[in-house]
C-alpha cells in the first residue's frame, strides 16, 4: 500500500526566504506526482505535475524535483511571499489506476 | 475556461438523512474523481468515473455511491448519514485517466449534526 509522507508538517519563514518542502513515498511504481496548494477551507490548486520519466518541473518561483528510485520529491519555493502562505500537498498516482494518494501536507506561513 | 464546479458549497444535515452532491468537470474532461477530506484522515479517495462507468473505488462503506452522466457531470450520494461523514468533499477532473493533471473544485462542506 502506497504511503506518502511530508516533512515538515509546518513551517514558518520570513518573507524573501527560499525554502524546500519534502515529500516521500514508499512505492516507486508511480505514474506521476503532483504538488497542490490548499488555502483554508478551499479546494486544491494544482501547482506542478511531474511524470515519472521526468526529473523536475518549473513554474515561476516554483521548482519541483522527482527522484523516483529513492521515493522522494521536493518543492522549492524561491523568494517566498506572504501570499504563498497555504498548505502544500503532494500526491502520487500509481502506474495502474487513477487514484491519488496524498501526503498530510506542509502548512507554510510566510511572515511579512 | 471554467473550472470544476461543485454544488452545493455548504450543506447541513442530520444523522440518518441522505445527501447528494454534484460536480461539473472542466469542459471536455471525461474523468471525475471524488475525495473526502477530514482533519483526522486527510484526503482519501472515494471513487473515480470515466465514460459513465465507475473505474475505481476507495475503501468506503456502501453508503457512499456515485454516478456519472453522459455529459461527464457526476453526483455522489451518501445515505444514512453519520456524524463521521462531516467533511469537505472534493471533486477532481482530468482529460484522461492516468497521465493528466487533476483539477479540483472548491469542494462541498458537509456538516452532519
Question: Can you tell me about this structure?
Answer:
The complex is a heterodimer of chains A (112) and B (113). Chain A has 112 residues and is an all-beta fold. Helix content of chain A is 0%, strand content 59%. Chain A contains no helices and eleven strands. In chain A, strands 2, 4, 5, 9, 10 and 11 form a six-stranded mixed β-sheet that branches. A five-stranded antiparallel β-sheet of chain A has the order 1-3-8-7-6, with no helix packed on it. In chain A, strand 9 and strand 10 (101-102) form a beta hairpin. The N and C termini of chain A lie far apart (41 Å). The model of chain A has no long low-confidence stretch (mean pLDDT 94). Chain B has 113 residues and is mostly beta strands. In chain B, strand 9 (87-94) and strand 10 form a beta hairpin. The radius of gyration of chain B is 13 Å and the shape is globular. At the A-B interface, strand 4, strand 5, strand 9 and strand 10 of A face strand 4, strand 5, strand 9 and strand 10 of B.
Brief summary:
The complex is a heterodimer of chains A (112) and B (113). With 112 residues, chain A is mainly β.
Attribute tags:
heterodimer, A: 112 residues, six-stranded mixed sheet, B: 113 residues, mainly beta, seven-stranded mixed sheet, four-stranded antiparallel sheet, 0% helix
Summing up helix and strand content along with how strands pair, one would put the structural category of chain B as mainly beta
**SS-based class of chain A:** mainly beta
How is the biggest beta sheet of chain A arranged?
Answer: 6 strands, mixed
**Portion of residues in helices of chain A?**
under 10%
Helical residue percent band of chain B: under 10%
| H/I helix tally of chain A | 0
Would you tell me the overall average pLDDT of chain B?
93
Largest interface between protein chains, with number of residues from each side: A-B, 24 and 29 residues
Q: What integer value in Å does the Rg of chain A equal?
A: 13 Å
The succession of helices and strands of chain A, N to C, reads EEEEEEEEEEE
What is the number of E strands of chain A? 11
- Rg of chain B: 13 Å
**Strands of chain B, total number:** 11
Q: Unreliable runs of chain A, pLDDT <50, ≥5 residues?
A: none
Largest sheet of chain B: 7 strands, mixed
Sheet-strand content of chain A, in percent, reads: over 45%
Amino acid at each position: 500500500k502506497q504511503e506518502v509522507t511530508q516533512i515538515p508538517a509546518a513551517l514558518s519563514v520570513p518573507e524573501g526566504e527560499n525554502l524546500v518542502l519534502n515529500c516521500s513515498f514508499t512505492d516507486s511504481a508511480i505514474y506521476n506526482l503532483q504538488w497542490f496548494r490548499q488555502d483554508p477551507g478551499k479546494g486544491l490548486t494544482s501547482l506542478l505535475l511531474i511524470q515519472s520519466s521526468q526529473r523536475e518541473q518549473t513554474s515561476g518561483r516554483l521548482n519541483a524535483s522527482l527522484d523516483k528510485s529513492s521515493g522522494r520529491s521536493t518543492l522549492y519555493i524561491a523568494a517566498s511571499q506572504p501570499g504563498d502562505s497555504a498548505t502544500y500537498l503532494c500526491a502520487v498516482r500509481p502506474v495502474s489506476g487513477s487514484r491519488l494518494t496524498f501526503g498530510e501536507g506542509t502548512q507554510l506561513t510566510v511572515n511579512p | 475556461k471554467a473550472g470544476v464546479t461543485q454544488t452545493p458549497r455548504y450543506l447541513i444535515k442530520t444523522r440518518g438523512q441522505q445527501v447528494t452532491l454534484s460536480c461539473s468537470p472542466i469542459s471536455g474532461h471525461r474523468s471525475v474523481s471524488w475525495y473526502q477530506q477530514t482533519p483526522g484522515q486527510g484526503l482519501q479517495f472515494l471513487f473515480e468515473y470515466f465514460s459513465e462507468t465507475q473505474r475505481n473505488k476507495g475503501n468506503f462503506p456502501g453508503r457512499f455511491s456515485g454516478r456519472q452522466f453522459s455529459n461527464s457531470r457526476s453526483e455522489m450520494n451518501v445515505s444514512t448519514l453519520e456524524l463521521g461523514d462531516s467533511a469537505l468533499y472534493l471533486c477532481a477532473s482530468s482529460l484522461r485517466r492516468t497521465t493528466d493533471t487533476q483539477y479540483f473544485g472548491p469542494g462541498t462542506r458537509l456538516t452532519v449534526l
